[in-house]
Design a protein that fits this description.
- It is a single chain.
- The protein is α+β, with helices and mostly antiparallel strands.
- 21% of the residues lie in helices and 41% in strands.
- Strands 1-2-3-4-5-6-7-8-9-10-11-12-13-14 form a 14-stranded antiparallel barrel.
- Helix 4 packs antiparallel against helix 5 and helix 5 packs antiparallel against helix 6.
- It starts with a helix and ends with a helix.
Length: 429
């Protein structure tokens, strides 16, 4: 069986498993679990506008239970921590589809790239739900869509990167959102009221800020990549404008929140992620909502196939996720199943899919291999007491990567040793 066919076969197995899970009758179990979380429902839940900002776009981040602020290893970072674009390896373009509830869905296109320590990205998301209005006789009076569309531009920079401490990345998202409410009919005449929808539509401007750092801690394997990340982000700082045909108001608070996340690669194939996030009302800080937390695990079965799982507790809404990722021809696909209990009798079974195209790393991996080769060559010269040749190799390595600390340390140590030898020779003569 050739490689592409083998990859497709593995992917078929995991997606079949996810589909089978969605078909299971888990009513008794879900009723028990949902009921146990009812006391965690917040008094201020649902008091903010633009709720589509809280709907996951799907893909890798949802498979990990939303525990992504401290991981952010693909283009999904835009929704969680804007600082990540400055440290991502690959240029990526991705499409996401998340089938939500009541025939609603979230559609997203996102992209990101990096130039040395400067990263940029962007995305456009649209959440929509069919809107149909019926008169008192059951006759359809109007039919359209309610939608919320958000556009995001991202920029980030990684300060003081090095070989051991990988730097401190700072980033921001600038966002604009539009809530489109369709015109509705008059209760008495059943005729569509002109501009009735625009009065309830809204325009939002907001921003995210984030910080992300990565380093090694308790590392049990050999790799250039850091195995521990910590991230902090504040999301959806801004305001929404409503009342375009009468008096303009700013009384529609956005779902702002502050989140702390971390990720830890215990061994090469296994990554754990945790996240804690506290929502707040920027207009009235005392009217905060319940915190929510998530956890996730990713297991790389092969270099082209991974299994992911996650759990998120959001107020009284526990969610379990199971996903599979599969790569072929530089495209990585994700299929995710989420069991959303939402403290109701009938649990919500949701499926999301994503397709991500990797457009390369701008030769970053190739440069790392060149630097490693020059460093090893310098060590070989050093063991043969060829110090000048060793220094030449290490200086060449620094021309390619000025942050390669082992070469810096080797140069300093060798120059000190050569100076000491010179002083000994002078004393002997």
């Amino acid at each position: 069986m050739n490689s592409p066919v083998r990859k497709l076969f593995c992917f078929f197995l995991i997606t079949s498993g996810i589909a089978s899970a969605s078909a299971l009758d888990l009513t008794d179990l879900t009723d028990t679990l949902a009921g146990s979380f009812l006391e965690m429902a917040g008094d201020n839940e649902g008091t903010t506008g633009f709720r589509s900002l809280l709907i996951p776009q799907g893909g890798r981040s949802e498979s990990l239970g939303g525990a992504f602020t401290g991981l952010c290893d693909d283009v999904s970072y835009i929704d969680y921590n804007p600082a990540a674009s400055a440290i991502l390896e690959n240029t990526e373009i991705a499409l996401f589809h998340n089938a939500w509830i009541a025939d609603s869905a979230m559609e997203t296109i996102a992209a990101t790239t990096r130039f040395n320590n400067f990263g940029i990205g962007g995305k456009i998301s649209c959440f929509y739900v069919p809107f149909s209005e019926y008169d008192s006789f059951g006759i359809k009076a109007s039919s359209s869509y309610y939608s919320e569309t958000t556009a995001v531009f991202n920029a980030a920079y990684n300060f003081h990167p090095g070989y051991r401490f990988r730097g401190l990345s700072l980033g921001t998202n600038i966002k604009a959102g539009w809530r489109a409410v369709p015109d509705y009919a008059d209760n008495d005449t059943n005729e569509i009221i002109s501009d009735s929808g625009i009065e309830q539509s809204a325009l939002a401007f907001m921003a995210d800020v984030g910080v992300l750092t990565q380093f090694n801690i308790g590392k049990l394997y050999s790799s250039r990549d850091a195995n521990f990340k910590v991230g902090l982000s504040i999301n959806n700082l801004g305001a929404a404008i409503t009342g375009f045909t009468s008096s303009v108001t700013l009384d529609d608070p956005l779902p702002s929140s502050i989140g702390l996340g971390l990720s830890y690669k215990i061994i090469r194939p296994v990554t754990l992620a945790l996240e804690f996030r506290q929502p707040f009302n920027l207009y009235e800080l005392s009217e905060y909502q319940m915190f929510y937390a998530g956890s996730g695990v990713c297991v790389d079965i092969t270099d082209f196939f991974s299994v992911l799982g996650g759990f998120q507790l959001k107020g009284a809404n526990p969610r379990f996720s199971l996903g599979g990722e599969f790569e072929i021809f530089k495209m990585r696909f994700n299929v995710n199943y989420t069991l959303d209990l939402t403290s109701s009798i009938n649990p919500l079974n949701r499926i999301s899919v994503s397709a991500k195209i990797k457009l390369g790393d701008k030769n970053r991996h190739e440069k790392k291999e060149q630097v490693d080769a020059l460093y090893r060559e310098g060590l070989m010269h050093y063991t043969k007491l060829e110090y000048n040749e060793a220094l030449e190799c290490w200086n060449e390595a620094l021309k390619i990567d000025k942050y390669f600390d082992p070469a810096k340390e080797a140069i300093i140590s060798t120059e000190k040793y050569m100076k000491m030898l010179e002083e000994v020779n002078i004393l002997n003569h």
